Amino acid sequence: MSDEVGAVPGDAAGAYGAPGGVDDELLAAVEDVIRAVVAAEVTPRWRRLDDGDIAHKSGPYDLVTTADRLAEERLTEELTALLPGSVVVGEEAVSADSGVLDRLGGNDPVWVVDPVDGTAAFVRGEDGFATLVALVHGGQPLASWTYAPQRGLFATARRGRGAHLDGERLRTATPAAGEPLRLTTSNPVYRTGYERDVLTRLDASGAVCTPCTCAGLAYLDVARGAIDGVAFFWEAPWDHAAGLLLATEAGGVSRTASGAPFSIPGGNELPFTLARDEATARRVTDLMAAGR
């Protein structure tokens, strides 16, 4: 793909520092901001949360911590300072005001932020959590940053310019004949009866399915060839924007139940997959659609 894929129309294109959307300087500056915010607000609270640091939002499984809130506040302030005129769609801001999602349909560049993806794992003291940031314009992700601090992993992607993990180029897996599909799926605990039936069909097909605890790390696993794909039933943009670009730039393909690629602003026909290649994406969606 050309570097021009990520360009935005008119004078706004110059705001990103490069015709392709995000130059090296901005890519590195955002990484520095993320590392600093996580070091200040997230990692010091890992395994040190008390009862007053943890709350429930919409249900017993929907957790938020002091780390989520403070990290998102800091990221909002510092990312918009890096790119004047930009706005933020963050998980905690949307939880407080769903109208914030409308920014994805506007003309401003949007930082899509998940301050702690995998909050439940973070609360349990596990290392499977990440901070996710994507820069989106016109509904299209231009760049993404995925940081798993306790695993020492930092992945970036730029639209049309590839995906990298700690400086090394990422590629999705090459299909191996006779090997079962390795998938990360929506956790059945959170799903409706119909959705659990879909997941049962994937299991029955012989796929090796692992419930998701951190979407960002699942997408990273696709991008680096550790698994073949994901199968998800929800479309919260902060969970998916960064990882979709990362895995797509590594060679992956997204496909919703309608056959269309996943849309960050929403309106997708669910479930959807992001898989290592077009053939695998089609296979996963066909398996999920069987019996509809």
Automatic annotation (TrEMBL):
EC class (word): hydrolase
Alphabetically ordered keywords of this record: Hydrolase, Magnesium, Metal-binding
The name this protein goes by in its record: inositol-phosphate phosphatase
Gene3D superfamilies assigned: 3.40.190.80, Fructose-1,6-Bisphosphatase, subunit A, domain 1
Transmembrane domains' residue ranges: none
InterPro entries the UniProt entry points to: Inositol_monoP_metal-BS (IPR020583), Inositol_monophosphatase-like (IPR000760), Inositol_monophosphatase_CS (IPR020550)
Source superkingdom: Bacteria
Swiss-Prot/TrEMBL catalytic activity: a myo-inositol phosphate + H2O = myo-inositol + phosphate
One term of GO molecular function: inositol monophosphate 1-phosphatase activity
Biological process according to GO: inositol metabolic process; phosphatidylinositol phosphate biosynthetic process; signal transduction
Cofactor(s) annotated in UniProt: Mg(2+)
Residues binding Mg(2+): E91, D114, D117, D239
Enzyme Commission no: 3.1.3.25
Originating species: Actinacidiphila alni
